[in-house]
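We modelled each protein-ligand pair independently. The example shown here corresponds to the flavin-adenine dinucleotide entry; the chain sequence is given first, followed by the ligand as SMILES.
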Amino acid sequence: MTTTRDFEVVIVGAGPAGMCAALYTGRSMLTTVVLERGIPGGELLNTEKLDDWIGEKSILGWELAKKFEDHSKVFGAEYVTANVSCVTRLPDGTFETVTDDGNRFTSPAVIVTAGGTPVKLGIPGEVEFAGKGVSYCAICDGAFFKQHTIVVVGGGDAAVEEADFLTRYAAKVYVMHRRDSFRASKILQERLFANPKAEVIWNAVAEEVLGDDQGLMSALRIRDVITGEVRTLDATGCFVFVGFRPNTGIINGHFDHDEMGYVKTDTIMQTSIPGLFAAGDLRSQLTRQVTTAVGDATTAAIAVEKYLKARAEGSVVTPEGTGGYAI
Ligand SMILES: Cc1cc2nc3c(=O)[nH]c(=O)nc-3n(C[C@H](O)[C@H](O)[C@H](O)COP(=O)(O)OP(=O)(O)OC[C@H]3O[C@@H](n4cnc5c(N)ncnc54)[C@H](O)[C@@H]3O)c2cc1C
């Protein structure tokens, strides 16, 4: 049997952003449900350890996730395990959030914190050595590769820019691309070409991540797509930048987004759909970190409280007192 339940706020996704938003909406005494398809934690559960969460010099990803989850429930937010299929703004300005099992959650405001998914190479060893050499985040993991030889895979802005960034730590950075030119902007390319620690390998694809007897990555097997030659690069890190897909498919109807599909918001995290707020990795912004996700979420949760108050009074909530969206 399916159910329909009413809340003041529905939060989609229990990564750092969703859990932080729940803490704040709960603290504002708003009835809150967090809908999460898996175990709460989001990408923290794919992160071996973090050394950039302020206040903890080093903390395991799952440990931080558990702390977030426990804390976020203190003020009464309810967690439901469910995969959200659709969030729709109804003609009366309220939202209906539907899950795969057919249950419905209605609310006057929704915060979407569904994150995104790094595109994988899909080669043997990639999953096995994730967090043990294979990474999808240079800012997060670069510092673990001081004086290592690493490979960056990809040819867009992210790959070229992050490869240049990684030379701060690594002794040598190979940048491997399946074509004979980068898609990245010229200025980023020039910076990389001028970097003595970087070496580009054109027309090559990764075939397998190899490991040592300690379970860490030790090399990458690659294939030249023109000659077919296969060789092994001695590298203890492989940073994959072949795309990142924001999980925005659940939002029904048009919403403003950037050219990569990330959701655009105003400064109070409201999307172009009034009452629909977005926070964390799926939002269009400079960088994607736990700190930025929880910062977004804090703003979104407080904005929701103001939005609901304004809605009850028949007025509007505006970012910084200028413009804004009608309710
Ligand atoms: C390998 C790796 C290492 C990283 N290391 C660091 C680091 O050291 N330091 C740092 O600051 N940042 C790090 N990051 C980045 C950081 O993890 C993210 O910026 C952060 O997790 C974003 O939080 P979020 O809540 O926006 O999204 P996510 O963490 O992606 O959480 C989104 C949640 O939404 C859920 N969800 C998605 N779709 C649905 C749906 N339809 N229905 C229900 N639930 C749904 C997902 O299951 C997930 O739990 C790392 C990222 C990766 C991939």
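The chain has six helices and 21 strands.
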